Amino acid sequence: MSAARISLDGSWDFKYLGYGAKPAESRTILVPSPWQAQFADLRMRGGVAVYRREVEIPEEWLEERVFLHFGAVFHVTHVFVNGAFVGSHVGGFLPFHFDITDRIVNGKAEIKVKVESPTDDPFEFPTTPFAEMPFGKQSWYGPLSGIWQSVYLERRIADHVTTVRVRSSQASGEISAQVRFESPLTDAADVTITVVDAEENAVAQSCAKLAAGVENALLYSFVPAPRCWSPDTPYLYRLQVSMRRKDVVVDQIETTFGFRSVETRD
User: Fold this and answer.
1) Spatial contact of 114 and 50, defined as CB atoms under 8 Å apart
2) Cα 215 to Cα 245: distance, rounded to the nearest angstrom
């Protein structure tokens, strides 16, 4: 198993292309942070901007897949690597990622991120004005535009675990883990979930043998005498998910969860 990350937080080249901007003007911006927080002339402005950064990819990374992750970008994102379009994402508050392996050239990647932050100016956004975007209370807090959460590259296998959703029962100690994969399994695999308490003791474990083509799996386990989470004692367990092929760990991921019940009474 050879998971690794390269942080892309830090300095990026930045060009603001909003209405009335000087197209040739290039400046440096720090990621993550809204552009309103860094440039006085853009303090209250949405619009369109392009971020650019070059990165060298370690040679050994190309033995697997390389994924480009964004924590959040407001609001419409178009990503290009070495001039080739990779993908788009709409929505400014959730993480997303793209597989950029096939766009890497000679171990190098020039990453360009075009960000559209709609305004109510009909000249800039005639079909997607800000006022027609589905927002809740977050729209009360002033303008927010650009790459405002962390960015990183990650080396993983093609069919790695992407998400794990844990459900727990305080009364019984039972847990279930819904495991989803980036793509259908390319080959058979053994997937194991292990529950680790706050004292680093493995308190539960179960394993499932999955066939090629599986897209998700539901695993169950049991924690004896679980300690409950509360605001005064926020006790958390860690759930580790590992994938093995031929007794070799090829992927793993970890999340936290707690035991708590909530009810309403008359």
Assistant:
1) yes
2) 16
Same structural domain for residues 167 and 127?
no
Question: Angle at the Cα of 27 (from 53 to 128), degrees rounded to 5?
Answer: 80
**What phi and psi values does residue 41 have, to the nearest 5 degrees?**
-75, -10
Range list of β-strands (E), 142-200: 146-147, 151-156, 161-168, 174-181, 189-196
pLDDT in tens, the chain (266 residues): 444 899 999 999 999 997 766 666 899 999 999 999 999 999 988 999 999 999 999 999 999 999 999 999 999 999 999 999 999 999 999 999 999 999 999 999 999 999 999 887 777 776 666 766 666 655 566 788 999 999 999 999 999 999 999 999 999 999 999 999 999 999 999 999 999 999 999 999 999 999 999 999 999 999 999 999 999 999 999 999 999 999 999 999 999 999 998 888 88
How far apart, in whole angstroms, are the C-alpha atoms of residue 89 and residue 98? 10
How many separate domains does the chain show?
2
Does any domain span residue 266?
Answer: no
CATH code at position 214: 2.60.40.10
Owner of token pair 């308490």: 197
Per the structure, the complete domain to which residue 55 belongs is given by 4-156
